[in-house]
Design goal:
It is a single chain. The longest helix has 27 residues, at 131-157. It is built from 12 helices and no strands. By secondary structure, the chain is mainly α.
């Protein structure tokens, strides 16, 4: 556990030792704020709950994009800086390395989401929404962010270049997002399987609407676990090459 936390702290500090972490957080917050003002708040009168739903919908895209960008450096930066050999020779297991880097990336996502809390708070100026709706929405964003962070950890672990890793992460994420479209044109039982695999349509919308869905939390946790296992296998395979 100690080794895992050391890796996580080291990588989290690396985000803020340069302008990289600050720039990404600032850019994501700026985009999220602009989208919130333009599309969620809008110019016409609407129910507060609808504004909050739109906020979570827009923030889900920002969360996934942020996870793709933030995870591209997890292993790619180690290779480009020539410090990967230090991890290979450190008294750490592959699982500790992967989990430590995943936790660092997920911590950045949590920080990003924490900095957006002022946006739902603005709704209270002229309206009223349930605190449970806000809590469930952020729970969904954290679950979604953890899943894409795990995909990004795997993408960074199995590739040599940062941009290639980000590209693979983006492709897999988009493929999982678009699976619901295939479900619409498929017949049972494939229809139900594809619908369940979809990253957003079936699983995030309950949180967006203020409902905590245990089945969806299990789905996100399972997908996160699967890609972290693949990342560990990728690191082990790289050492044998």
């Amino acid at each position: 556990m100690r080794g895992l936390l050391l890796v996580a702290r080291r990588d989290l500090q690396a985000y803020f030792n340069t302008a990289w972490g600050y720039v990404i957080l600032a850019a994501m917050l700026l985009i999220d704020g602009l989208l919130f003002n333009a599309f969620a708040m809008g110019a016409s009168a609407q129910y507060s709950s609808d504004v909050l739903e739109k906020f979570f919908y827009l923030s889900s895209g920002i969360t996934m994009a942020g996870a793709v960008i933030l995870t591209m450096r997890l292993f790619g930066e180690e290779r480009s800086a020539g410090t990967m050999v230090l991890l290979d020779t450190a008294p750490l297991t592959d699982l500790q390395i992967v989990l430590g880097k995943f936790l660092a990336g997920f911590a950045m996502i949590a920080i990003l989401l924490g900095l957006t809390l002022y946006m739902p708070a603005l709704i209270f100026v002229n309206g009223k929404v349930s605190l449970l709706h806000i809590a469930s929405g952020y729970l969904g964003l954290l679950a979604l962010g953890a899943t894409v962070t795990a995909i990004g950890t795997w993408g960074s672990a199995v590739t040599r270049g940062q941009y290639v890793g980000a590209g693979i992460t983006a492709v897999v994420t988009v493929a999982l997002l678009l699976t619901w479209m295939l479900a619409k044109v498929s017949d049972p039982p494939l229809k139900a399987i594809l619908s369940y695999v979809a990253l957003f349509d079936k699983h995030f919308q309950p949180f967006q609407k203020g409902r905590i869905n245990i089945e969806s939390l299990v789905y996100y946790a399972s997908l996160t676990f699967a890609f972290l296992v693949l990342a560990v296998r990728g690191i082990q395979g790289r050492r044998w090459r």
